[in-house]
Amino acid sequence: MCGIVGYIGTKLATPILLDGMSKLEYRGYDSAGIAVYNEGHITVEKCVGRLDALREKVKGHMPEGTMGIGHTRWATHGRPSDRNSHPHTDDSGDFVVVHNGIIENYMKLKEELIAKGHKFVSETDTEVVAHLMADLYNGDFEATVKEVLKIIEGSYSLVFMSAKDPDKLICTKKDNPLVIGLGEGENFIASDIPAIIDHTRRTYIMSDGEIATVTKDSVWVQDIKGTPISKKVFEVNWNAEAAQKGGFEHFMLKEIYEQPKAMRDTMTGRIHGEEPIKFDELNWTPEEFAGISKIFIVACGTAYHAGLVGKYYLEKFARIPVEVDIASEFRYRDPLVDENSLLIVVSQSGETSDTLAALREAKRLGARTLAVTNVVGSSMAREADQVVYTYAGPEIAVASTKAYTTQLLVMFMLGVYVGTLRGTLDPKLAKELTLAAQDIPEQIHQTLENVDQIKVFATQYGSCEDAFFLGRSLDYAVALEGALKLKEISYIHAEAYAAGELKHGTLALIVEGVPVIVLATQSDVYAKTISNLKEVKARDAVVIAIAQEGDEEIGKEADHVIYIPKTNKFLAPLLAVLPLQLLSYYAALTRGCDVDKPRNLAKSVTVE
Ligand code: F6R
User: Fold this and answer.
1) Which of 122, 193, 258, 510 lies at a 20 to 30 A Cα distance from 285?
2) Active site residue 225
3) Residue 29 pLDDT grade (very low, low, confident, very high; cuts 50, 70, 90)
4) What is the DSSP letter of 314?
5) Is 303 helix (H, G, I), strand (E, B) or coil?
6) Structurally, how many domains does the chain consist of?
7) Mean of the per-residue pLDDT values for the chain?
8) Which residue, judged by its Cα, is nearest atom 16 of ligand 1?
């Protein structure tokens, strides 16, 4: 995710901004920029690439001034480029803004501003905010910020700077983090504590809707109506490394807990109330889709598991046959792909070599191609005909967690979208699903709170040699992901089976005390799953069941039950995987494994 740093004081701002931005580098970014005010003028320097490129750019003519804002960008709207880098300005250069998040209604606002004569230079959503400031400016900086906030929709942390009112920075947030660092004769703003920890440990943690006016000697916080808000000082007692992880012990855990936000970001602009799900970036028509006779989903590892869930959605809602392939198999099996095929590649990084090769092969064979990826401007995003982004933000731990759940969400939304387009999905069910999806971020939050029980299981069974995961239908796809997660970070041998398949061989391995995780969230196959559960119980396995709240029957059969909040069965994978992520994490911890960097594995596999 993007990083924000702001400084106002008596020292030169540029080195402080660059240093703060370097503390956010670990989060991943593709471009960087600063804006510094000096003697009536704001200088903006920005460029694509690493911070060193920006340092090189300002070498010898470093912007001088004691107030400035800086930004490291992780592209969401518009590919990584000099122009798309932040800070963004209005036409005059008097209003400057840095932004993390997504301005949902930016297209409409941009059109209106262009009609009024504003000249846009970037493809970003953020630039509208700077132009809006200029458009609405009434001589009062704070009042104008409030007017802008009434108009923009979406999620943001924003810092505003104005040459017209140069003794202050104004910042605010909604659904994105923002902190203010309190100094002596100087103050700091940052999206994350590591950026300011070298200067101060006294902070205000900003809440949604709060607007702070920050001068070098004061911080004044109010809400949009002007009601003053008195903030409590939060003393940061983490060391720099812990601060990078947001106080979590590992990036993996931090990323697990970032899932509610990742879900909200991925839904932004696509799901709204009961309205039909939309993908502005696709804008498919029923006619266009009529020519597609088959969909191929191709991916590796965890992304492949998301593809398996995607098959289910697309077949069920859109009634199109879907084949899911492991990319390294697809590319060498002479696939029967042609111009009537749609190939969807799913990839967090957008760079995985086998998946990229599969995409190229499908293009060569004349298929239409779509990339579902998390990295804007990645190879797959550039090479596929179309791209749908998952907005998980940077994923640093090798084991994929929030990237996976955002992939599931995108596949779900695509299924409902295409089903609606083709008229194969009952509109009533489409509405039901759309509404239920909007509860998922909060339900993820609730599920993740239920961690104590999982810690106990991890201690009890963390020393086991083998573990099995069973499920039917969507639960089977999630079981595969649960087993992969457990083996990759805890090194416990884990296997997932379609529950009905167990007795065709593997049941021979079920002996006394073996932990078997049974997923039972799917009502249509529930009774059959319970029969399979009984089969393993009869061999004295220890059964941990994952079930929906309200399911009392399962408590009579399983040794332990982990409940997830009640949801539509189609959405259950988004919740059922969470206890499996946590179980893997805590099992790995119990075994003393290097959770974020498991042995022999790399985050992005760019070799065959
Ligand atoms: C497992 C994991 C990997 C990746 C796989 C594909 O936790 O992260 O299995 O899912 O290497 O990577 P992407 O999604 O970048 O193509």
Assistant:
1) 122
2) no
3) confident
4) I
5) helix
6) 3
7) 94
8) 347
Judge if 289 and 177 occupy the same domain. no
> What are the C-alpha distances in Å from 356 to residues 294, 327, 330, 360, 548?
20, 8, 11, 6, 37
451 and 433 in one domain?
A: no
Q: Are 297 and 333 a contacting pair, CB within 8 Å?
A: no
Q: Which atom of ligand 1 is nearest to the CA of 604?
A: 15
Are 451 and 582 within 8 A, CB to CB? yes
Question: Is the same domain home to 164 and 308?
Answer: no
Looking at the structure, tell me whether residues 223 and 265 fall in a common domain. Answer: no
Joined together, the tokens standing for residue 182 give: 């309190």
Is the same domain home to 284 and 263?
Answer: yes
**Is 24 part of any domain?**
yes
Beta strands in 340-455 (DSSP E): 341-347, 368-373, 386-389
Band of pLDDT at residue 1, cut at 50, 70 and 90: low
76: pLDDT confidence band, cut at 50, 70 and 90?
confident
Give residue-wise pLDDT tens across range 225-269. Answer: 999 999 999 888 777 777 788 889 999 999 999 999 999 999 999
What is the domain extent for residue 146?
3-244
Q: Which of 220, 244, 268 is the last residue of a domain?
A: 244
Q: Tell the residue number behind the tokens 């509208």, with chain if given.
A: 128
In this structure, the residue with its CA closest to atom 8 of ligand 1 is 400
Asked if 434 and 458 sit in the same domain, the reply is no
pLDDT at 549 over 70: yes
- Residue owning tokens 């084949």: 323
**pTM for this entry:** 0.83
Is the pLDDT confidence value at 397 over 90?
Answer: yes
User: pLDDT-based confidence at 15, cuts 50/70/90?
Assistant: very high
Structure tokens given for 408: 């599931």
In this structure, are 458 and 427 located in the same domain?
no
The answer to whether position 605 is within a domain reads no
Scanning the structure block, which residue is given the tokens 């399983």?
A: 558
Q: Is 603 a catalytic residue?
A: yes
